[in-house]
Amino acid sequence: MRYAFCLIFLLIWGDALANSELQDFSMGDAINIAGRQRMLSQRITQSYILQGIQPGTEKHQQVFERSMNEFERNLKQLAAFEAAAPVRSTLSLVQKEWQAFSAIARQPVNKFTAAELFKLSNSLLPAAHTYVMRLQALAKHSSAELVNVSGRQRMLSQRIAKNYVAQFWGVAGNDGTRLLYEDLAEFEQMLGFLMESPLNTPEITRNLLKTQGHLSYASRGFDGEMQMSEARQIHVVTGTTDIMLRNMNVITGQYAQLLNAVEVAAR
């Protein structure tokens, strides 16, 4: 009897906690998390390819599994966000693309599946991006654009690395080099856009300047200015883009807080 009562209590408490989390989930949080889906589509593909280039490296498998699980978890959280109900059909498109993508991602790594996943990552990404843009339109505030753009920078950091390792392993097709340098140019351009925002706090500006320095360092590796082995260059490129990812993740969270503060003030 006591066990049954405890079980019922835990179930009720768990539901209450979940409902409380959803109530605290704001539009700024939604844009932030939906933006992470863009990044995860690229990070998953990068870590999948790295498992082929450096088989047996535990880190690549760990990053892959964590990223796959987070994408699934984020989808469920976004689907339950009632404030985004008007754009739920757009999220359905993301879910459809994810099903095809994850089916390939769960297959053993080889060059054929890696090339297929590379293609599918370029289909999942625009679907996820469209959903972020719909959320931004719902938010109706300039800080929402900053959350979106900074979140896209997270994605670009990982797409830069994905395109690099895909080109290295020969699974990017004929456009690998072009896509890589287009992403580097876009990252630099959007970093300049963020640095000019009048909404930036001193802390946000400091974090943006850090990211600018890391971009400069990564670019030297792509341009062949650093003399090193191929294995070392992969380590430097993926390590530096991961630091860029972490910096932009912090910045995106800071912009999301600005948007959340606007929402609270408007209530």
Structure characterization notes:
The protein is mainly α and 267 residues long. It has 9 helices and no strands. Helix 2 (27-53) packs antiparallel against helix 3 (58-79), helix 7 (176-195) packs antiparallel against helix 8 (202-222) and helix 8 packs antiparallel against helix 9 (230-266). The protein is globular, with a radius of gyration of 20 Å. The termini are far apart. Mean pLDDT is 86; it is low at 1-22.
Question: How are the secondary structure elements laid out?
Answer:
Elements: H1 2-24, H2 27-53, H3 58-79, H4 88-105, H5 111-139, H6 142-169, H7 176-195, H8 202-222, H9 230-266
What labels would you give this structure?
267 residues; mainly alpha; 84% helix
Task: Summarize the structure in short.
The chain has 267 residues and is mainly alpha-helical. The protein contains nine helices and no strands.
What is the helix tally? 9
- Structural class call reads mainly alpha
Task: Give the overall shape.
Answer: globular
The N- to C-terminal Cα distance equals 45 Å
Oligomer: single chain
